[in-house]
Amino acid sequence: MEIPIFTVDAFTNKPFEGNPAAVCLLQNELTQDLYQKIAAEMNLSETAFLQILNSTDDFHSGSRFGLRWFTPTNEVPLCGHATLASAAVLFYVKKNANATLVFETLSGELYARREGNRIVLDFPIYKPTVQDPNEVKELIESAAGEVAVQDVRYCAVTKKLLVRLPDTCDRSMLESLKPDPQSLMQSDSTGKVKGLILTLKGNPQGQPGYDFYSRYFAPWNGVSEDPVTGSAHTVLSSYWSEQLGKQKMLAFQCSRRGGELRLSVREDGRVDIAGEAVLVLQGKLTL
Q1: Is 46 assigned a catalytic role?
Q2: Which of 55, 103, 127, 190 is most buried when burial is the number of CB atoms within 10 A of its CB?
Q3: What is d(CA 23, CA 90) in angstroms, rounded to the nearest whole number?
Q4: H helix intervals, 25-156
Q5: What InterPro entries does the database record attribute to this sequence (predicted)?
Q6: What is the pTM (predicted TM-score) of this model?
Q7: What's the half-sphere exposure (Cβ side, CA atoms, 13 Å) at 200?
Q8: Given 2, 29, 46, 175, the catalytic residue
């Protein structure tokens, strides 16, 4: 069996920046074990599996596909950058001309459309609630050291903990933090965290004018630090929209590779997450 496979750097227009995702094109379902083995072999934060749902469709003309995401250790219910990568393969490689692509996923229907040189993802938005810092004190200290954090929120749906650094900090402070993955997992006494967001208010008056910065860590899912995380921004967009009183925001994730996301919070309880993507590899898996 041969499976077409692609590697796409998402949320960037330059190779080797943004977040790389593998995208596999499937005619039929695989066994659960095989999905996981392929993702482990690719060894990227996520491998996406796109599947044709209607036997009369193909990747050139179809508008609705099944989509699943696997880290090297497990399946996840939502992944932004691998969805962007999947849409990029369909739009740019397969020349799919549909105005909107629909993906059936564990998080419901997700949508992707083209706007100029960007792809816009239509995702659900998740509002985090106030979290008592004392309940996650050790986890915060493992992540931020002695920095006195300004706010702590938790999203029960996504199991992500959001930790806001004080406004007196700058981007270099956020980038200098070096959380140890093992320490993060061991310091979570609640057992409810599957992802840690560190975030900081930006400077929208500067150039290029980022409204906020972030970093994302998910060792609980086998990902020490994710370079650019669309799913984290379903939480971040809700939080910062409320904090800044803005519906349209420009965000930057401050990993070593880095990536830019344009966000538009909508009144229907969803968020548009826009970014660029670049194809860096294509081939076939032989199984």
Answers
A1: yes
A2: 103
A3: 10
A4: 32-42, 80-88, 137-144
A5: Phenazine_PhzF-like
A6: 0.95
A7: 25
A8: 46
Nearest alpha-carbon partner for 114 in 267, 275, 236, 242: 275
- Bridge partner residues of 124 (DSSP): 270
Closest listed residue to residue 94, CA positions, set 68, 57, 127: 57
User: Left, alpha or beta for 245 (phi > 0: left; psi -120 to 50: alpha)?
Assistant: left
123 touches 48 (CB < 8 A): no
Give yes or no for residue 206 having a pLDDT over 80. Answer: no
pLDDT digits (tens, 9 = 90+) for 99-140: 999 999 999 999 999 999 999 999 999 999 999 999 999 999
Question: In the predicted model, is pLDDT for residue 55 greater than 90?
Answer: no
Q: Is residue 225 pLDDT above 80, yes or no?
A: yes
Averaged pLDDT for residues 20-34: 96
Flag whether pLDDT at 74 surpasses 90: yes
Cβ contacts of 55 within 8 Å, gap of 6 or more: none
Task: Please give the radius of gyration of the chain, using alpha carbons only, rounded to the nearest integer.
Answer: 18
Task: Supply the DSSP string of 158-198, one letter for each residue.
Answer: TTEEEEEPPTT--HHHHHH----HHHHHHH--SS--SEEEE
Dist CA 162 CA 10 (whole Å): 23
Give yes or no for a contact between 128 and 119, defined as CB atoms under 8 angstroms apart. no
Q: What 8-state DSSP symbol labels residue 134?
A: G
pLDDT tens digits along 165-203: 999 999 999 999 999 999 999 999 889 999 999 999 998
Domains of the chain, earliest start first: 2-123+275-286 (3.10.310.10), 129-268 (3.10.310.10)
- Strands in the chain per DSSP E: 2-10, 19-26, 47-52, 64-70, 75-76, 100-105, 108-115, 118-124, 129-130, 151-155, 160-164, 195-201, 212-218, 223-226, 248-253, 259-265, 270-275, 277-286
